[in-house]
Amino acid sequence: MSIKSILRSSIYQTEKALQKIRFASAPRNAYPILLGISFPKSGTHLLDQILLGFSKAAPFSTRLHSFYAEYEGESGIKRTPEQALAWLDSLHPRDIASAHLFARAEILSRVCTPAFVPYFIFRDPRDVVISHVFYVTEMETRHVHHAYYQSLPNFDSRLEVSILGRPETEIEFPNITERFAPYLGWLDRPEILSIHFEDLIENRAATLNRILEHFSKRVTLHVPTNRILEALKISINPSKSPTFRSGKTGEWKKHFSDEHKKIFKDIAGDLLIKLGYEKNNNW
Length: 283
Prior knowledge:
Rossmann fold; about 45% helix; globular; alpha/beta
């Protein structure tokens, strides 16, 4: 373990201890792990900030314990199921953690237990591919596909790659439907609250209420509901997100050409319907 990792772990454990002292009068029930699961480019940091808001009302950590992704950003190497399980095993009660985590059977059986309060956030896949282009091309220079995206002649060609993937390379990068497929299992479990990113932008108050209600099924806090909701609300600060760009919805309408629409409908028209973003392919 590097010195940086050791220092980060020490700071984290100190903060957890201070939180325990701060909320010494709170009920001594076994607190769960708050787990924010997200499809990439779907509001990961927004959900993180909201979950961290619970630290103002209960002895949860004041920062994320760690972040897990199924692919290593710089190499593109896909992590194994055993690595995902090991990461889950590293979490402890009162942790708040975040992950791009596939809904494998063994992962579902681990997460869908009283040990976790899990949330899954996703976004209109059309906006996901737009966000992906900007992220890989301009924001994350260490990304495994950064040089390739930079080599493409224009935004339209990059957007086409973000929709279709790169099947010609050894680095796994499938099309948008295949990228979403391993996450679909999160939608079918009542133990997990699914959140549309758009609802947090356009209908925030009601969505924060849903987040609190899901939390309250597992944890009882002797704090007025309005105080907890206010804590969640004021925790949202887009400027503190390292990958924040616009936080808007429907951005795809500005960037999709007729050809992009045709390609997307062929590849992911059924996915949009399944996720509730369209009723048919007449968009």
